[in-house]
Each structure stands twice: as C-alpha cells, then as structure tokens.
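Chain and backbone:
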Amino acid sequence: MYKLAPSILSADFAHLGDQIAILEENGVEWLHIDVMDGAFVPQISFGMPVIKSIRKSTKLFFDVHMMVEEPGRFTEVLKDCGADMVTVHAEACRHLDRTLQAIRNCGMKAGVVLNPATPLCALDYVMDRLDMVLLMSVNPGFGGQSYIPAVTQKIRDLRKKLDDAGRSDVPIEVDGGVNAKTVDEVLDAGAEILVAGSAVFKDDIAANVRMFHGKFAERK
C-alpha cells in the first residue's frame, strides 16, 4: 500500500482549493495537514478552521500531523473538523497511551510521530494502539529541509521492529526532504506513505504527482 500524502504546508494558500483539486484529479488519496503551535516547533501554521473549511470541498483522507504540545487537548475538535488520521509526537505527549486511545475513541486512526533523534523504543508500550508510525526525516517545524540520511536505517529498523511485534499491518510514513532524489532510498528502506511538500507543490503539481506514482508502480 503505497500512498503519497502531499503536505499543504507548501501549497499556495491563495489557491489552496484549486491545488487540492489538481491532486484529486491526479489520483492522490491522502492530504497531509501540519498543525504547528509555535511552542513544540518554532513556527505557527494553521488550525482547525482551515481543516474544517477544506473538508467541505474534498473527500481526501485527512492525515493530520499535530506538532503541538499535549495534542490530546484537541482530539474531539479534530474529529468535528473532519480529520481521519491524527498523528502525535511521542515527545509532546505526557501520557502517550492515553492520547492514542482518546483519538481512537473518537473514531479516528491514531499514529505516533518520532523526531530524527528519538529512539524507536518510544513505541514499545503502545504497539497495540498504532495505526501508523510517522518518522521525521528532518527536524520538524520548517518546510524545504534536506533529508537526514541516518533516518534510512531507522526506517529499516522500524520495519523489522513492527514485523517482529506482529504488527506488519502498521505502515511507515516518512516526512521531510522526500523528493525525486531521495524517494527510492526511502521506499527501499520500507516506507509506504510519503509526505512531500515542495516536491509536490513546486512548479507542475500534476507532473510531480506522476513522478511519485511512477515510483510506486515500479514496486508493484
């Protein structure tokens, strides 16, 4: 199951609806939505009104990445805004298990995000709560950063860890610096869902999407 999840952090907000329509027309199924609070990460992005607004115009799967302190505070409002998947940083949750369970109790899928330097053992006691694991391949907070090469081995190690735990059904998502130069490396390591911002929204969106989908087709 390979998926492209374009990050609207890199979209042109003056034409956001039109650009989302182009994604849909070219077979994109997921939309990655980064919510930043200016505390857990340096930047502030956008909040619930934006998510609720675009939910009205698209049926894409909303993959909401919460880069905020104590994201469990927003679980119910995220459901009301139309989120399908909510991923939370292990580093930002005082009670990670409780937060994941709250997301699931609201009928959404739940995922854990790990920053590049956060060890995989952070997942050890929440394996039964996972619908996805998102590995950051840049330090979060800014778009357009370069891929951190050490994350490639981390993807491989995570795939083995999930398989050994009987959770082969849990996909790995990778976010940061994924583009035409790094996509093969990331896929070869075991990632299945790719977040891409500038690599999708810069220049020809349709052509960029076709590049990623072509890479997926090579592996089927």
User: Anything to note?
Assistant: The two ends are 9 Å apart (CA to CA). Helices lie at 16-25, 48-55, 75-81, 96-105, 151-164, 183-189, 198-201, 205-217. The CA atoms of residues 69 and 92 lie 5 Å apart. The beta strands are 3-6, 30-36, 61-67, 85-89, 109-114, 132-136, 172-175, 193-196.
